[in-house]
């Protein structure tokens, strides 16, 4: 598609997919909507609210288009505005999937929808209720006067009569957009941190997307979506901005495979815009590192692949040699676990890891740490988030802690050993490109000395508090 000429604004039909709570089927419905319109030959641009790695890859497969996060705190309003504007210039429809319940968190899905005047479709799992579903939607619609509820999508609807009871109880101004049948073949598979990675179950997802699209096609939802009035998105300001710091001439090795895949596309794009050359490698299957000046070990699921990581001795030795040369390494969450001395996997088996950082990693059931935080790096603060169900014990004294968005307790620990910076936090690089340039440009070892190993008190926030 030819790039359109620059304009002061762009308009496109748009719909924000929200829910009264998590677990209502937002991603299932959003993916089915995207596939429905894609099957009609339409360009559908999908966005996911908040920090998320798994849902966007599922939605990207369903839509055939890249999926970016929209987060008013982590990425900022200007970043969100730019992405929506650019999408509106090329798309026939924009879909934004919300996070948690509509009004949960600060900022919430409702805040994002209100800021950009996006109409909302409420997805609700209606199993075990009928008229009460209508009451809940009416309550959501009346809670704030700056959001517009376009209708209800009743998920897991049991029968034609079930549908009729819900539709008959809805206020006249809130239509029933669709009733999605109760069918296990439509739901998306999950595991302990969310959805199963799209790459692992691509063919299975295709079948579920098509089944969901067929169900919504029968409801006549494609015509309703394309008939939505366009939403106008203003062009981002053209004011001069400071030039990006340079990583020109630097080559960055990026771990990317089934064990390490929690990577914002925005982070990769930024590094390339800064001039870095990216070389991807697999700690699971490769025997050596690509030629590079710095390493990024992102998050993922090392706990599901710990035996294979431990068995790949050549790769472990290559990374250990890179570390011994005092070259920069950034390890986030799963990358942090890989850098420890050992990791106890989901089956309770303990495996040797890289041993770059003293400590032991282990899974800890359903309890987890989640939340938005600012990493207080010596190179500068960088916003990001934490989401894990593991614990690191016997680690060194942190050089700093993450600063939580609102909660007063110290956030995730930030460790530094020689050129290694390791933390449970997933960083959003565009928040502070200069800090990332300093971190990857040269060894940060001089920023803080190595400190004796000991056990530390850990702070955690339960899943119910994860926006704290």
From TrEMBL:
Where, by residue number, does the polypeptide cross the bilayer?
none
| Domain (CobB/CobQ-like glutamine amidotransferase): residue spans on this chain | 252-431
Q: What is this protein called?
A: Cobyrinate a,c-diamide synthase
Name of one Pfam family that matches? CbiA
The cofactor(s) it depends on are: Mg(2+)
Keywords from the UniProt entry: ATP-binding, Cobalamin biosynthesis, Glutamine amidotransferase, Ligase, Magnesium, Nucleotide-binding
Q: InterPro entries from the xrefs?
A: CbiA/CobB_synth, Class_I_gatase-like, CobQ/CobB/MinD/ParA_Nub-bd_dom, GATase_3, P-loop_NTPase
Q: NCBIfam families given for it?
A: cobB, PRK01077.1
Lineage start: Bacteria, Pseudomonadati, Pseudomonadota, Gammaproteobacteria, Oceanospirillales
Its pathway is: Cofactor biosynthesis; adenosylcobalamin biosynthesis
Family note:
Belongs to the CobB/CobQ family. CobQ subfamily.
Instruction: Determine the domain of life of the protein's source.
Output: Bacteria
Q: Where is the CobQ/CobB/MinD/ParA nucleotide binding domain?
A: 16-193
């Amino acid at each position: 598609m030819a790039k359109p000429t620059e304009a002061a604004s762009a308009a496109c039909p748009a719909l924000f997919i929200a829910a009264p709570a998590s677990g209502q089927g937002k991603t299932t419905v959003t993916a089915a909507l995207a596939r429905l319109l894609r099957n009609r030959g339409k360009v559908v641009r999908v966005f996911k609210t908040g920090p998320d790695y798994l849902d966007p890859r599922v939605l990207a497969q369903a839509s055939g288009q890249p999926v970016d996060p929209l987060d008013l705190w982590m990425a900022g309003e200007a970043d969100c505005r730019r992405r929506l504007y650019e999408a509106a210039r090329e798309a026939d429809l924009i879909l934004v999937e919300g996070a948690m319940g509509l009004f949960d968190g600060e900022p919430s899905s409702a805040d994002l929808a209100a800021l950009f005047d996006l109409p909302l479709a409420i997805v609700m799992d209606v199993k075990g209720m009928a008229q009460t579903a209508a009451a809940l939607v009416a309550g959501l619609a009346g809670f704030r006067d700056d959001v517009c509820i376009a209708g209800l999508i009743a998920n897991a609807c049991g029968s034609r009569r079930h549908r009729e009871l819900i539709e008959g109880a809805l206020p006249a101004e809130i239509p029933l957009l669709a009733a999605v049948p109760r069918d296990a073949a439509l739901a998306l598979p999950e595991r302990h941190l969310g959805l199963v990675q799209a790459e692992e179950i691509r063919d299975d997802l295709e079948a579920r997307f098509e089944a969901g699209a067929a169900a919504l096609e029968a409801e006549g939802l494609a015509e309703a979506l394309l008939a939505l009035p366009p939403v106008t998105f203003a062009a981002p300001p053209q004011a001069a901005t400071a030039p990006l710091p340079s990583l020109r001439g630097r080559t960055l090795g990026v771990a990317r495979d089934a064990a390490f895949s929690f990577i914002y596309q925005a982070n990769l794009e930024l590094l390339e815009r800064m001039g870095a050359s990216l070389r991807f490698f697999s700690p699971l299957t490769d025997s050596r590192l690509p030629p590079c000046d710095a390493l990024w070990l992102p998050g993922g699921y090392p706990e599901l692949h710990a035996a294979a990581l431990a068995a790949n001795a050549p790769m472990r030795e290559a990374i250990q040699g890179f570390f011994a040369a005092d070259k920069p390494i950034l390890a986030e969450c799963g990358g942090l676990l890989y850098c420890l001395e050992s990791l106890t996997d989901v089956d309770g088996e303990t495996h040797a890891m890289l041993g770059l950082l003293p400590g032991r990693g282990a899974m800890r059931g359903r309890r987890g740490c989640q939340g938005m935080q600012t990493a207080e790096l010596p190179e500068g603060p960088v916003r990001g988030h934490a989401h894990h169900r593991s614990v690191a014990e016997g680690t060194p004294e942190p050089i700093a802690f993450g600063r939580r968005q609102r909660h007063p307790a110290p956030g995730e620990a930030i460790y530094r050993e020689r050129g290694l910076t390791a933390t449970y936090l997933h960083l959003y690089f565009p928040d502070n490109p200069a800090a990332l340039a300093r971190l990857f440009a040269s060894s940060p070892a001089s920023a803080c000395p190595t400190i004796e190993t000991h056990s530390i008190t850990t702070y955690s926030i339960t899943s119910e508090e994860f926006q704290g």
